[in-house]
């Protein structure tokens, strides 16, 4: 059972800042050095000063703690007076190959009782690396705060949770800020106990799947084990709880981008003979499509019925299509839940056995790089920056959930949810001596 609880969030004092958007940042793990410097320069109180602190070695974590203490003392950050759930809505436009489309993604932020993945309450969908976990562990332990949330998905086919939250959020939001990327962030503070109880009851019998933030979740579990007071029953200390954003899996505002694969460092022969060697599993078709809109349209159209990839190579005219044969033997890919996933088919039937790009090469990115932008990918092919590109459809949310609920972990880079959550909108302090306020479920 997934147990959630309201909490008193730590938030920027809106009365002190005319432009709250200038204080927000993307998640730490997507910020490059140039953007980091830009965010630091945009405002002396931008959250990046806490979430990606400067300093040599471990001193940077103590620098973050000192900065946090300063912001608390001067009133830059204030803690809400009452425990609440936080309704979070993002409005954005995504310009795909076929043109721009407007989306509204809804969800809520709350505490969640932490448990290891083995408990099958919170489900992972991809493997993680150790490096980022160490960094986040040191930062959270030093600051005793969560500056961002894990992004998770839950099933709510009847819309019970969504309806309750919509009913509680009819007034104007407390936060309405648009970041430089054009994403509008709106936040409502939900303190009504009946609404909170309805949401908690609706989520209680369900498992939740991590869409983004595996490192952060595993770090929160490690922090729980490090900070919780001895002798206190599990769930009775705030150290036992993490912070999570929950989105409904059926939300039409969920946007998952495809992750196109680009290969390099292979022999020309391996690629020249690829089409012929793939025939036991694929129909190999020639196509005249060359512009992004035409390629995307065919991928989407034929991808509704089967697994299909577009293969582009520098200097080649048109596009080669690899369409999974109806009689293809997929036994090596595992059970049907996995075997019909585009990423499983590409990696299990093409990249690994035919091109020698296995799990280790994927982790090192020694022969494989990625892009979520079809135009960017085609541009690299045209410039001969890569030897070939495999263009693919996005993995459907329902497919990811089906696989995770069945106990499987997908290949790396199987999903990419757009946009990212804003860091600094809602934060949480960790006081191991404080108990959570549990809803009346």
Key terms for this structure?
alpha+beta; Conserved hypothetical protein from pyrococcus furiosus pfu- 392566-001, domain 2; 441 residues; 2 domains; 31% helix
Largest sheet: 9 strands, mixed
Helical residue percent band: 25-40%
Count of distinct structural domains: 2
Oligomer: single chain
Overall pLDDT level: 93
Topology readout:
Layout: E1 4-5, E2 10-12, H1 33-42, H2 48-51, H3 59-74, E3 77-79, E4 85-96, E5 99-113, E6 122-123, H4 130-143, E7 145-146, E8 150-154, H5 160-168, E9 175-178, E10 184-190, H6 193-203, E11 208-212, H7 214-227, E12 241-248, E13 255-256, E14 260-263, H8 268-272, H9 274-277, E15 282-287, H10 292-303, E16 308-312, E17 319-324, H11 336-339, H12 342-351, H13 359-364, E18 368-371, H14 374-382, E19 388-391, H15 397-405, E20 417-418, E21 428-429
Helix pairs in contact: 3-4, 4-7, 5-6
What does this structure look like?
- The chain has helices at 33-42, 48-51, 59-74, 130-143, 160-168, 193-203, 214-227, 268-272, 274-277, 292-303, 336-339, 342-351, 359-364, 374-382, 397-405, and strands spanning 4-5, 10-12, 77-79, 85-96, 99-113, 122-123, 145-146, 150-154, 175-178, 184-190, 208-212, 241-248, 255-256, 260-263, 282-287, 308-312, 319-324, 368-371, 388-391, 417-418, 428-429.
- With 441 residues, the chain is an alpha+beta fold.
- The chain folds into two domains: 4-255 and 419-429, no CATH class; 258-393, Conserved hypothetical protein from pyrococcus furiosus pfu- 392566-001, domain 2.
- A hairpin with a 5-residue loop joins β9 (175-178) and β10 (184-190).
- It is globular.
């Amino acid at each position: 059972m997934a147990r959630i609880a309201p909490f008193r969030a730590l938030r920027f004092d809106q009365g002190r800042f005319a432009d709250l958007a200038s204080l927000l940042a993307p998640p730490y793990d997507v910020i490059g050095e140039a953007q980091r410097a830009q965010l630091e320069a945009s405002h002396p109180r931008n959250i990046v000063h806490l979430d990606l602190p400067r300093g040599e070695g471990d001193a940077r974590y103590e620098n973050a703690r000192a900065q946090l203490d300063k912001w608390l003392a001067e009133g830059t950050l204030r803690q809400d007076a009452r425990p609440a759930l936080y309704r979070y809505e993002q409005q954005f436009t995504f310009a795909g190959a076929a043109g721009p489309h407007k989306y509204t993604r809804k969800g809520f932020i709350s505490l969640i009782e932490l448990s290891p993945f083995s408990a099958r309450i919170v489900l992972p969908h991809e493997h993680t690396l150790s490096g980022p976990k160490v960094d986040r562990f040191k930062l959270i332990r030093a600051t005793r705060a969560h500056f961002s949330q894990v992004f998770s998905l839950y099933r709510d086919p009847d819309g019970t949770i969504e309806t309750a939250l919509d009913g509680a959020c009819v007034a104007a939001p407390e936060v309405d800020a648009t970041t430089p990327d054009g994403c509008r962030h709106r936040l409502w503070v939900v303190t009504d106990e009946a609404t909170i109880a309805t949401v908690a009851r609706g989520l209680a019998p369900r498992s939740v799947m991590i869409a983004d933030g595996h490192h952060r979740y595993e770090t929160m579990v490690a922090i729980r084990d490090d900070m919780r007071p001895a002798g206190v029953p599990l769930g009775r200390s705030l150290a036992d709880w993490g912070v999570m954003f929950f989105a409904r899996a059926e939300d039409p505002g969920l946007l998952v981008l495809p992750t196109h694969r680009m290969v390099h460092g292979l022999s020309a022969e391996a690629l020249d003979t690829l089409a012929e060697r793939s025939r036991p599993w694929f129909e190999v078709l020639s196509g005249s499509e060359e512009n992004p809109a035409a390629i995307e349209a065919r991928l989407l159209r034929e991808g509704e019925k089967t697994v299909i990839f577009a293969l582009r190579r520098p200097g080649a005219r048109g596009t080669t299509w690899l369409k999974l044969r109806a009689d293809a033997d997929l036994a090596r890919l595992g059970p049907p839940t996995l075997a019909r996933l585009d990423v499983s088919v590409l990696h299990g039937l093409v990249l690994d056995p035919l091109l020698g790009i296995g799990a280790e090469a994927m982790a090192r990115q020694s022969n494989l790089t990625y892009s979520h932008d079809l135009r960017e990918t085609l541009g690299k092919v045209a410039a001969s920056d890569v030897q070939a590109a495999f263009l693919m459809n996005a993995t459907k949310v329902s497919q990811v959930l089906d696989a995770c609920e069945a106990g499987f972990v997908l290949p790396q880079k199987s999903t990419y949810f757009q946009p990212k959550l804003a860091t600094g909108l809602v934060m949480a302090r960790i006081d191991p001596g404080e108990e959570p306020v549990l809803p009346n479920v």
